[in-house]
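comment on this one:
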Amino acid sequence: MAPKIFIDGEHGTTGLQIVTRLQARRDIELMSMPAEQRRDAEVRTRFLREADIAILCLPDDAAREAVSLAADAGTRFIDASTAHRTHPDWTFGFAELSERQAARIASAQFVSNPGCYSTGAIALIAPLVASGLLPKDYPATINAVSGYTGGGKQMIAQMEDASRDDAIPSTYFAYALTLAHKHVPEIMAQTGITRRPVFTPAVGRFPQGMLVNLPLHLDLMSGAPSMADIHGALAAHYSDGGLVDVVSLAETAPPRLDPEELAGTDRMKLYVCGTAGAGQVNLVASLDNLGKGASGAAVQNLNLMIGD
């Protein structure tokens, strides 16, 4: 019997993307609440409890409520909200995080889907900490730009409809300038770094895509590694496949990197940029904020959980 999949919050940006990816599949049964029953708490509870796997595309409090309604029924969860990303009872849904992470996801009842910015940051930082090259107390700075779809339906409308009173006219803006972005705790928890990084995200006037930058001073790292050492650590970590590619040093000298490079895909590319011998590198993760950074990751986790 095909596993029953219920997307709670299927009409949000991430939920709609997941529905699009799953609706033609015949190896699962995609459950969907009738439009007129969407606000019926009893119907929602029944769908959650009857599902084999519920994918939560909800605000944090609503995601916690959904888990409380159906966890005891054996329902398995993939939570795309921030609610459980640092919870000790939840498995972090970044399959390439470690050698055993995909197996942990496959057997878990509770899987937290990573955030888009944090997917790129964790992909760069975690292998360097694990290899001993990056001290856990390194004063890291993370700079990133995302497509506007990461802001949800309201920001999409503000970017695409110039007639709105709250339309956004700028082509690019930085935000979270209080340095208290919601992704910082999961970056720290999933990489093991102990010093809070300075994280400055931004949004550009393009729908999908993302670049996450991690500039590093090599003399502040353990053993003052070279660019080749850093590239080697990343390449070794991601050598077993998955959706993360480490671009060779020979290919990492383009005149520019395009944040829309991987828009519409579920892959992520990691670049080690700089000049050999100059004492600095800039590590860059390129991904689709709605692909590997959201709905694509959720489907990857779903496939692991159903043994696909």
User: Anything to note?
Assistant: The chain is about 30% helix and 20% strand. The chain has a mean pLDDT of 94. The first helix runs from residue 13 to 22.
